[in-house]
Specification:
Blueprint (H helix, E strand, L loop, with lengths): L5 E10 L3 E11 L4 E5 L6 H8 L12 E4 L2 E5 L2 E2 L4 H4 L2 E4 L11 H6 L8 H5 L5 H13 L15 H15 L3 E5 L7 H18 L2 E6 L2 H7 L2 E6 L2 E7 L5 H8 L3 H5 L34 H9 L2
Parallel strand pairs: 3-9, 3-10, 7-8, 8-9
Antiparallel strand pairs: 1-2, 1-4, 4-5, 5-6, 10-11
Helix pairs in contact: 5-6, 6-7
The protein binds adenosine-5'-diphosphate and magnesium ion (MG).
């Protein structure tokens, strides 16, 4: 039996007659890896993540299969009926709306135990002291414990994402699938969210697959990148190989969307104002090519 954390086999997903969101995708991710999933808007990142999480069923072809820790999440277009236990081992973080706004932060995080406790207790919101302590510890891990009593709606986007990571810790997720968790964040918040993901990967051995709209973060945080284009895997290898020329070759006109460093669109950005930034150079468009007006990048982002 497979020892991979994630094994995706010949996965295809069509929407209607003309859209093939995933086209024969086969990938494996080993336990403990931190992998970036990149690709332009519409390339299939979210669809792939949702299939791995068992939230969406693939096309019916019998060869389509997703396994997590050797257990079948779905096969031949059918989501496994007994996937509840397996699901509790898979944490999912979305771009937005990860928390219940009207609930306090601690409650939002302690909810992570729901897969492991009797349903009635969860329904009544009866959590034990030790579960609450676990939630506080998880909040402390992501630097959010001081906000435990606050309503989720009062937190910034980056704080909410870190809380979602804390909830995955409480859930004791062994695989964390994060779908563009930093897409709507400013660079500083994005960095803190990525730092938190990297930390739980390193210290807890949690396997992380994170989809990213921008290659610079993949290079900085993830040793391996899987790149999608039109639902197909077009690259799977060391992130350091993703230089500008290679990305242009992979993506053609779409490459600007991925290469653009979001800091370039910040009017007051000073390259030297933040000394802690990774020494690794981020990908930038070479000086000899015409600069892309920041305006063009904003709608692409906002339309996500
Ligand atoms: N529920 C859906 N109904 C119809 N088409 C969809 C649906 N979800 C995704 N698609 C299409 O599938 C393709 C891949 O989408 P998606 O996985 O969201 O890409 P990404 O996350 O990389 O932006 C796109 O063409 C998108 O329009
Ligand atoms: Mg998406």
């Amino acid at each position: 039996m497979s020892e991979h954390a994630i094994a995706v086999d010949h996965l295809s997903k069509s929407f209607g007659r003309n859209t093939k969101a995933l086209d024969d995708v086969s990938i494996t991710v080993d336990s403990g890896e931190m992998v970036a999933l990149i690709g332009a808007s519409g390339s299939g990142k979210s669809t792939l993540i949702r299939h791995i999480a068992g939230l969406v069923a693939s096309d019916r072809e019998t060869c389509c299969k997703v396994q997590v820790f050797g257990e079948t999440v779905q096969s031949g277009g059918r989501i496994s009926g007994d996937a509840r236990q397996l699901r509790s081992r898979i944490g999912v973080i979305f771009q937005q709306f990860n928390l219940v706004n009207r609930l306090g932060l601690l409650t939002n995080v302690v909810i992570g135990v729901l897969g492991r406790i009797p349903t009635w207790r969860g329904t009544l919101g009866l959590f034990t002291k030790s579960e609450k302590r676990l939630a506080m510890e998880a909040l402390a891990r992501v630097g959010m414990d001081q906000y435990a009593g606050q309503r989720a709606s009062t937190l910034s986007g980056g704080q909410q994402q870190r809380a979602a990571i804390a909830r995955a810790l409480v859930q004791q997720a062994e695989v964390l699938l994060a779908d563009e968790p930093i897409a709507s964040l400013d660079p500083e918040s994005a960095r803190r969210v990525m730092d938190a993901l990297a930390e739980i990967n390193r210290e807890d051995g949690i396997t992380v697959v994170v989809s990213l709209h921008q290659v610079a973060y993949a290079k900085k945080y993830c040793p391996r990148t899987i790149a999608l284009r039109d639902g197909k895997v077009v690259f799977d290898g060391p992130s350091e190989r993703l230089n500008t020329e290679f990305l242009r070759e992979l993506y053609g006109a779409d490459s600007e969307e991925l290469i653009m460093d979001e800091t370039m669109s910040k009017p007051g950005y000073q390259p030297d104002s933040e000394p802690k930034v990774s020494p690794e150079p981020t990908i930038r468009i070479p000086a000899h090519t015409p600069a892309i007006p920041a305006k063009q990048t904003v709608p692409a982002y906002a339309a996500e």
